[in-house]
Amino acid sequence: MKLISPTYHGFTLISAPKIHMDLLWDLTILFSGLGIIFFLGVFIFRNRLSAKASKVAGQKKILAPIISNFLFHETDATKDENYEYIKLKIEIRDLLKTPFNRLVLTEILLDLKKDLSGDSRNRIYKLYQDLELHLDAFNKLRSWRWEVVSKGILELTQMRVLAAYGFIKKFINDKRGVVRKQAQIATVTLKHEGIAYFLDSTRYGISEWQQLKLLDVLRNFEDFTPPRFKAWLTSKNRDVVLFAIRLIKHYNQNDANKSLIELVKHRNDQIKSEAIQCIKDFGVFEAAPVLKSVFRNCSVDIKLQILDTISSLGKAQDIEFLQIILNKESNFLVKSKAISTINAIAPETYVPTEGIDKRIATKNFENNVEDNSTQLTEDMNNKEIQLEDSLSASNHEEDSKDLQNHLDPEVEDEIIFDLCFMEELEDILTEFNESEDQEVNYLPLDFLPLISEEEELKSTVDPKTVENSDVETKEILEEESFKEELEAILDNIKTHSADDAYEGEEDTELEFLPLVVESNIEEESEDLAVAADKDILAMEVTEEEVVREEKNSNLQNKIPQVDWLPEQKLESFETKAKNSIDWMALVSESERAGNMAQSAALNSSTWHENIEGEENNDDNSTPDFYGFSIFQELFRTCDTESKLILLDEILAVGDEKEVHFLKTLLEDSDKKVSAKAESILKELHKLLAPEMPDETTIEQIHTNGQGAENTYSDKEETKVISSVNMKSGSFPDMEEENMKSLEYCFLDDSTNEKDNNEKHLYELDFELMDTALEVIKMGLQPDKTDYKETDKEEDKIFGSLMRNIILFPKKLKEKFNG
Amino acid sequence: MVKKNLLLAEDDELLASLLDYRLQKGGYNVHVANDGRDVKEYLRRATPDIIVSDIMMPYFSGIELIDYVRNQLDSKIPIIIISSAGNEENVLSAFELGANDFISKPVSPSELLVRVGRELNKQ
Fold it and tell me: Has residue A244 got a pLDDT over 60?
């Protein structure tokens, strides 16, 4: 076997040092042993601690009742109690012989001292000394260990052993910091005169924390008469002077003004600062010359403090000094403080100068306000004019607009809203146009040939193909209509804002609703290609109408009480339909999945339920059908300002459906809204009054537009259309479909569907005859006879298609409203 | 004269022992519970005339005890709360839940005795 030669070479410089294996083993054993010893030590130490703790806890449980007995023993106790007390005393004397018990007793008393107050605490102090436990603490003071000494001092202090004062005060200047500090606190705590002794004798510095603790001790003294701390203002210990000033301030000892004034000249900034603060608090007016004289050589902080003091103590003659500071001082803070000090002494000497717009003439201010207020009032009444004015004002009168906007934020909000709205709308249209340019082949009527091609290829009709084509149709028509409607809305808004005379003209703002159909008819002669698409749509609608006629007759046969139809029942249908979104989704899902039987069952069952429910509930009632206002939903979540804006929009785009909604708003709790609603209602009435269709007009339109075969023979059906109150003036054809409210179209269609479903249950067999296809290709409107009726389900397909088309504006509205 | 039953809920055994002694000396039949579980256990089998409870206790705080007594047991037993100074929020919560009185630490046993007597007299 051939060995592979190594591809690397060893270098002597980086070779590992040679370590003897025995040494490695020795080291391993050593460290292992050390580890074991360490863990063993921790284990033993921990066990000892826990054992001691448990022993102490056990002993505490034994001693606690004895302590309680001692604490609460009364001199007027009964014989038995006295006997027991004496017995316990003897017992405790025995216990105190052992150091451990003494330790436990001390701990118990220290713990109880924390939790008890009043007389019980004093008894604890007394018991501590009665049991001679303080002797142990004194012994601790003799220890060489600082922590033991400190603990002894603390114990004696906590138990208020006054006899320890003399012992403890010796530790005030101890070199060990902890002992020293503990002794300082103990000295001050044990006796009232301790503070004086401490301030006299301490040589070490006193930390801020220590000063706070000492101050806290002094504060908690009862019946404490503090010494005059000015005596220590002359101390050589800087911290003593500082602490003395603070104590002077704390106890309001204002008999040391001269010393305080002198201390302003102190080299130490901290002392200087405290002295100045004291001067300010005590209102030492005679300190002003000294403050001025030391000002120049002080730090910025002290300068600010001096200026602050002068602002409260200063007089008019000090302003000259402050002016000099203002002129000569380079520091911004000091200058600013000097100004505020001058203003404090002589108010309003300096007025704000920074960021002031000097172009505003003060004299004309009131006139400007009046003019703008008048203009605003007018603007509030006419939103369109206001929009135009605001836009023009932004170009010409900037100052005026600023004032205007400052005066009324509502107007500003409305303008911003409109501008944003227009921008958004234009963006959407631009995007739509771009996408349309990119997808040239994606024509709205591509779906029709596709279906026929498949029909040619396949001898049998595939329901899924029809379904797919239906989906395509829906998508294409949605896009087409969406674009047209957006453009229409944009045009309307623009023309409304520009043209004041729009009110007299025909209201075209609702054209977006039936635009899908109407545009096909109107533009028939203009463009052949476009006309072909739209004519086919129109043809579909015509076919739909035929189907509708048949369905209506079927419906009448099926339901004898059809007299209620639309006027009485539609509202409840509408409500039910809204409430049964899940049901619709289920039906839709079933249709998509091809489960026609299930879908039909769902449709028919719900339909019957609805009919029965309505018959039972509404036999005697005749509710009015008002239609559903799209604004109603928006109003629920709006604030007042938004409602007012929406009311303006109702005037711009609203129709009869909004009339009822506006009437409900008249009773709105918000007076602004109700007033606005009233005015909008009046204007809307004016707008709608000449365009209200009547039955004869509609019937004539039906007769003239589509021929006798397409008209509604049923007068009830005509009533439905008129009751829905859709505008008919602008729609020469297909009015009956267009004039229905969207919701009704949906419901009507669904009811027809259901009726039809009972017979044939989605056995779709849709096909176009060759002649019809040719006509479509030629862009001509085919005759209905060109359609070969293989089955009645053909109507169903057109019904479904039309439902999608008719539903589209509603979907658009929903999209548009977010 | 029948001694009134007092439930003392206090986790500090030393303080509990001392208060127990003082309250017993004051004429009450005291049951000491050192944590929330003891309190619950006792309340299941007996109904004290008054409860003196520390707010901070293991397993079952004084606040929970009040809630338990007032809402679950649906009892109107007077409850006196013992709380350390500066525990204002807990004290307010205790009063909202239905505590009758409050005493702050460090406790004066004599004062507690007076308060207990006053609450029982109200009943």
Answer: yes
Q: Token pair of A564, please?
A: 């209620």
The crossing angle, in degrees rounded to 10, of helices A409-438 and A640-653 is: 50
Q: Average pLDDT in the A7-20 region?
A: 69
Nearest to B94 by CA among B102, B104, B86: B102
Q: Which residue of B has its CA nearest to A120?
A: B108
B71 CB within 8 Å of a chain A CB: no
Structure tokens at A448: 């029709």
Best of A78, A84, A110, A117 to disrupt the B interface (most B CBs within 10 Å) is A117
Rounded to the nearest angstrom, the gap between the alpha carbon of residue A535 and the centroid of all alpha carbons in its chain is 52
Determine, for residues A115 and B107 on separate chains, whether the beta-carbon distance falls below 8 Å.
yes
Angle between helices A134-141 and A99-115 (to 10 degrees): 100
d(CA A635, CA A113): 68
CA dihedral A528, A532, A535, A540 (to 10 degrees): 180
Asked whether the beta carbons of residue B18 and residue A64 sit closer than 8 angstroms, the reply is yes
Chain Cα centroid distance, residue A234: 61
Q: Are B65 and B20 in contact (CB under 8 A)?
A: no
> Any idea where the domains of chain B sit in the sequence?
6-106
Confidence of residue A627 (pLDDT cuts 50, 70, 90): low
Distances (CA, A) of A514 to A41, A119, A541, A727, A731: 94, 94, 12, 10, 8
* Residue A111 forms contact with B (CB below 8 Å): yes
Cβ separation A64–B25 shorter than 8 A: no
Q: Is A81 on the interface with B (CB under 8 A)?
A: no
Using the Cβ of B22 and the Cβ atoms of chain A, whether some distance falls under 8 Å is answered with: yes
Close Cβ partners of A710 (under 8 Å, ≥ 6 residues apart): A542, A545, A546, A549, A702
User: For the segment A16-63, what is each residue's pLDDT rounded down to a tens digit?
Assistant: 778 888 999 999 999 999 999 999 999 999 999 999 999 999 998 888
Could B109 and A60 be called an inter-chain contact, meaning their C-beta atoms sit closer than 8 Å? no
Q: What are phi and psi of A523, to 5 degrees?
A: -95, 20
Q: Per-residue pLDDT tens for A576-617?
A: 444 444 444 444 444 444 444 444 444 444 444 444 444 444
Sheet containing B101-105: order of strands: B28-33, B4-9, B50-54, B79-84, B101-105
Residues of chain A found within 8 Å of residue B17, distances taken between Cβ atoms: 61, 64-65, 68
Q: What count of other Cβ atoms lies within 10 Å of the Cβ of residue A254?
A: 16
Chain B residues closer than 8 Å to A120 by CB: 18, 108-110
Residues of chain A found within 8 Å of residue B106, distances taken between Cβ atoms: 114-117, 121
Tokens matching residue A438 = 């990119």
Nearest-Cα distance to chain A for B106, in Å, is: 4
Interface contact B21-A120, CB threshold 8 A: no
* DSSP letter for each residue of A794-808: HHHHHHHHHHHHHHH
Vertex B89 angle, CA B88 and B93, to 5° = 115
Q: Cβ(A483)–Cβ(A434) under 8 Å?
A: no
Show Cβ contacts of residue A570 under 8 Å, excluding neighbours closer than 6 positions.
Answer: A625, A720, A723, A744, A747
Read off the pTM: 0.49
CB A245 within 8 A of CB A263: yes
Q: Which CATH number, 3.30.565.10, 3.30.1330.120, 3.40.50.2300, 3.40.50.10330, labels domain B6-106?
A: 3.40.50.2300
Return d(Cα A299, Cα A301) in angstroms, integer.
6
Residue type, B68: Y
Give the pairing of strands B101-105 and B4-9: unpaired
- pLDDT, tens only, A333-380: 999 999 999 999 988 888 887 788 777 765 555 555 455 555 545 555
